[in-house]
Write a structure and sequence with these properties.
By secondary structure, this protein is α/β, with parallel strands linked by helices. Helices cover about 25% and strands about 25% of the residues. Strand 15, helix 11 and strand 16 form a beta-alpha-beta unit. Helix 8 runs parallel beside helix 9.
Length: about 350
């Protein structure tokens, strides 16, 4: 079968032929119907050799959707042909966090060598994907896999971040989203659906801001050195109750802290390598700064329900498996409209 692999430190990914996987006890083999491409992939492929820990060759793709093709011994409750999406942050399944569906925070995963697909384990950018457990599959019924697969990360990560801050998003509140690409454009829609907050979106191009407006942002601001002052001017001198930074480089983190209000939440989602400088006088009083990771299994189920309700308009650009390396080039250049999705059947 074909797979898109990162094979050499610093080299671009390649489409190669690999051996067909065989499901063992408890495992499920999927025929991949759609796989998302993410900035996290670019982050991993940009690591120097001394920091790279994901193994080579690495089949990429931590956003996966597929049809159940084969069941390993002992798997029950799934039928061949069922359309599913894959919950990515696999955990041990037995600890306190995993028992709550919060496998994204499993404290034993690293110790046991458990890694997410595409981030250590073979990922979804292939004709077939081996999933370690049926509990990591969420049926999607008649939903379009292309429009649904980004929910497994690009939707789940902001949904998790927003849910924890909903008590602060009351009438008259403001939420700021920095970066309106794959995650950001979904965050704007989730904010509009889940809260009464005024949503202000920041990005570096007019095209990205046009997308933010199209999906529901009340106000848009170019992400420049003057962005924080412009946002505060929009808000009559006040700050925002929630700031979501989907970029995570030093300038955007500085902007996030500068637009935050007293008793606000600043959530750094992007993995751009930036650092927040915190201390008395450097952030508003009682502001909380957090760095979340992905989301829970139950939250992915909730997102799929929102998709069935027609709440989300997921913007995607579709590529064939052969064209996946070009999709990564577009991602690096910042020219994608929403989320890049690879469809192996094309």
């Amino acid at each position: 079968m074909r797979a898109v692999q990162y094979r050499e430190i610093g080299a671009p990914p390649e489409v190669v032929e690999v051996e067909r996987p065989v499901p063992g006890p408890g495992q499920v083999l999927l025929e991949v119907t759609a796989a998302g491409i993410c900035h996290s992939d670019a982050f991993v492929m940009g690591l120097p050799a001394e920091q790279y820990t994901y193994g080579l060759p690495l089949t990429l793709g931590h956003e996966g959707a597929g049809r159940v093709a084969e069941l390993g011994p002992g798997v029950q409750g799934l039928e061949i042909g069922t359309s599913v999406v894959v919950y990515g942050p696999w955990g041990c399944g037995t600890c306190h966090a995993c028992a709550q569906g919060r496998e994204n925070y499993c404290p034993r995963a690293a110790e046991l060598g458990i890694q997410p697909p595409g981030l250590g384990a073979p990922g979804a950018l292939a004709d077939l994907l081996l999933v370690d457990s049926a509990r990591h599959l969420v049926p999607i019924g008649d939903l379009d896999p292309v429009a649904t697969v980004p929910l497994t990360d690009a939707g789940l990560t902001p949904y998790h971040a927003i849910k924890r801050s909903l008590p602060k998003l009351r009438a008259g509140s403001t939420a700021v989203a920095i970066g309106t690409g794959g995650l950001g454009h979904l965050a704007i829609q989730l904010l509009r659906h889940l809260s009464p907050a005024r949503v202000v979106a920041l990005d570096v191009s007019e095209e990205k801001l046009a997308l933010a407006t199209a999906v529901g942002a009340h106000d848009v601001v170019l992400s420049t050195a003057d962005a924080a002052a412009e946002v505060r001017a929009l808000l009559g001198g006040r700050g925002a109750q929630l700031v979501l930074d989907f970029v995570g480089v030093d300038p955007t983190i500085a902007t996030a802290l500068a637009v935050a209000d007293v008793d606000s939440d600043v959530t750094i989602v992007g993995i751009g390598g930036g650092t927040a400088h915190l201390g008395f006088g450097t952030v508003p009083f009682e502001a909380s700064v957090s760095v979340p990771y992905w989301g829970s299994r139950s939250e992915l189920i909730e997102l799929v329900e929102l998709a069935h309700a027609g709440v989300l308009d997921v913007h995607t650009e579709v590529f064939s498996l052969t064209d996946a390396p070009r999709a990564y080039e577009r991602l690096h250049a910042g020219t994608l409209d929403g989320r890049a999705v690879v469809v192996p059947s094309l």
